[in-house]
Write a structure and sequence with these properties.
14 helices; 15 strands; six-stranded parallel sheet; 17% strand; 383 residues; 37% helix; alpha/beta; disordered N terminus
Length: 383
């Protein structure tokens, strides 16, 4: 690591950063089912194929940090075939293993579903990489004991969270906690943690991967679980008047007579999700309760980033991200949302004008290249 001076302020250059991420298990199962021989390939080939799917933040952090002159990489900590391959290639012993149905390695005995490999491999990766900054994307599922173990091998441990916080979570081992939810930042600071506001973003490389396809009028992509009662009620109100194509987990949580069942198409991730958003006239967004009064989720940037009109719920800070009425459209109730849907489905030129303006704003201010500049600026103050 080298320090360069800018006026009186020392600015870090050539940092090493290791980003620890976790993916939805359902996505990982689907991914390896679609690539049945991949688990037998090298770590680099598995990782590159996985990153090319563009799930979550994929390699958006490391690619843009590298573009800024730093050394960075992601680890998908809960991707068992990938992590096992890294262990084998780097001489990390994981106990007794047997060959699974598709040739991949599985723990013995199989029925026990052991995860002993998880922290063994992850600790070995941290000790091998020895980053200046270890950044944890899944704070709820990362143990404080693990962070204490790898503390001597890193200079700064940072975490990022904007989802419901587990009652068992312990964040005291973090040097810095980032969140795209302002009220989370205030709460962390009042709890004695160092915390900073850090927004989500969009990766423009995705636009090169999208293809023209059949268009849909209104789409919604997101969870529909018991924790999303208000969202379900909102969507049912809209779907009673307009067909709404819906993807996401939680179909089983809907009542048997819910109108949403006839419009639900299952789960959708990664590039396929972006493709659906790009082919929509209107992308609906509805925050969950944990967001409180703040606009925060990834759909804000995903929908606008691919050039689709975003219809989102009104939040106190929305105008700091986009200009409502010119770059996105905001509603305060289901009734208002219905009126806006009717209007913009009937006024294509206005709809497209707002969609173009929203995309321009995202590509100007909300890209991951821009976010990583902000990230480095924050880290400069703590490392």
């Amino acid at each position: 690591m080298v320090l360069r001076r800018c006026g009186a302020m020392p600015v870090l250059n050539n940092m090493k950063l290791l980003i620890i991420d976790s993916y939805y298990p359902a996505f990982l199962r689907s991914f390896y089912s679609a690539h049945p021989d991949l688990a037998n390939r090298s770590y680099d080939e598995q990782r590159r194929t996985l990153m090319d799917e563009c799930f979550g933040t994929a390699d958006f952090y490391s690619a843009n940090l590298s573009a800024l002159g730093h050394e960075a990489t992601e680890v998908v900590a809960n991707c068992e075939p990938l992590q096992q391959r890294w262990a084998r290639e780097n001489g990390v012993k994981l106990g007794k293993w047997v060959v699974g149905r598709r040739g991949g390695l599985v723990p013995w005995p199989q029925r026990r579903q052991s995860k002993d490999w998880f922290y063994t491999v992850l600790a070995a990766q941290v000790k091998n990489y020895r980053p200046d900054v270890l950044h944890i994307q899944d704070m709820n599922e990362t143990s404080a004991a693990f962070l204490r173990e790898i503390r001597p091998y890193v200079k700064l441990i940072t975490g990022q969270i904007a989802c419901p916080i587990s009652s068992a979570a312990d964040f005291r081992e973090y040097d810095l906690v980032l969140s795209s939810l302002p009220h989370f930042v205030k709460q962390f600071q009042s709890d004695g943690l160092r915390s900073e506001y850090f927004k989500l973003g969009f990766e423009p490389r995705l636009l090169e991967r999208l293809e023209k396809g059949s268009r849909r009028r209104i789409v919604f992509i997101g969870g529909l679980s018991n924790d999303h009662a208000e969202r379900i009620e909102f969507l049912e109100r809209l779907a009673a008047s307009h067909p709404v194509d819906i993807w996401g987990y939680g179909l089983e949580s809907l009542s048997e007579n819910s109108v949403l069942r006839q419009f639900h198409h299952g789960e959708l991730w990664a590039l396929e999700m972006y493709q659906v958003l790009a082919g929509a006239d209107i992308a609906l967004n509805h925050h969950i309760n944990v967001a409180d009064a703040y606009a925060n989720n990834m759909r804000l940037y995903e929908a606008t980033g691919v050039g689709t009109l975003l219809l989102t719920d009104q939040k106190d800070n929305l105008s700091t991200l986009f200009e409502p009425g010119k770059e996105v459209v905001a509603y305060s109730s289901a009734e208002e949302a219905l009126e806006l849907v009717d209007y913009y489905l009937g006024h294509e030129e206005e709809r497209q004008e707002i969609a173009r303006a929203g995309q321009a704003r995202t590509l100007r201010e909300h890209t991951y290249y821009y976010r990583m500049q902000e990230f480095v600026d924050i880290i400069d103050r703590y490392l």
